[in-house]
Amino acid sequence: MNWTDERVEKLKKLWSEGLSASQIAAQLGGVSRNAVIGKVHRLSLPGRAKAGGTAPATASRAPKRTTSAPRAPNYAARATTRTVTRAQGATVVREEVEIDTVEEMEFVPASNVVVPISRRLELTQLTERTCKWPVGDPLKDDFHFCGNDSPDSSPYCNYHQKLAYQPVSDRRRAAR
DNA sequence: CCCTGATTCGC
DNA sequence: GCGAATCAGG
């Protein structure tokens, strides 16, 4: 694959938008992330400020939040489904986060009692083999994902897999 | 181990 | 000019 004007333009655009080299490589197709990085250098495009690190997209630091007392039932949000999409490398992660006023509060109480050894990963850290079980309130900034290793390419770790695939009949009512 | 960008250097 | 290999870092 050679660098046609079009491809170069796309490269410039995506790079300026802050996409990572591997993400760009995935979109262009036919090239590796190394090829992209190499091209970026040859074009003398501005590199990423600090080397070896996360894409600047994560730069938005959350304003420190004083840990509040265990959340009391505050399920204002009615049943909602928000789709959040992010890419990690050439991997596209699209998550349907259901905010179920019943199930959520049962599985995700204020404290992380239910969650084993969460690695507390950011959305940007998820890969094909990290558990994508959401922990906490997606609307709060302490929200994160389990992140434990998941067998094969399962979306969840062994523990959360059980919770994830419980038959509806089993979880109806305050069964838990 | 996953990922990131940076650099080198044979082609 | 190209990009795999390698390096350096989170």
From TrEMBL:
<dbReference type="Pfam" id="PF07750">
    <property type="entry name" value="GcrA"/>
</dbReference>
<dbReference type="InterPro" id="IPR011681">
    <property type="entry name" value="GcrA"/>
</dbReference>
<feature type="region of interest" description="Disordered">
    <location>
        <begin position="46"/>
        <end position="81"/>
    </location>
</feature>
<protein>
    <submittedName>
        <fullName>GcrA cell cycle regulator</fullName>
    </submittedName>
</protein>
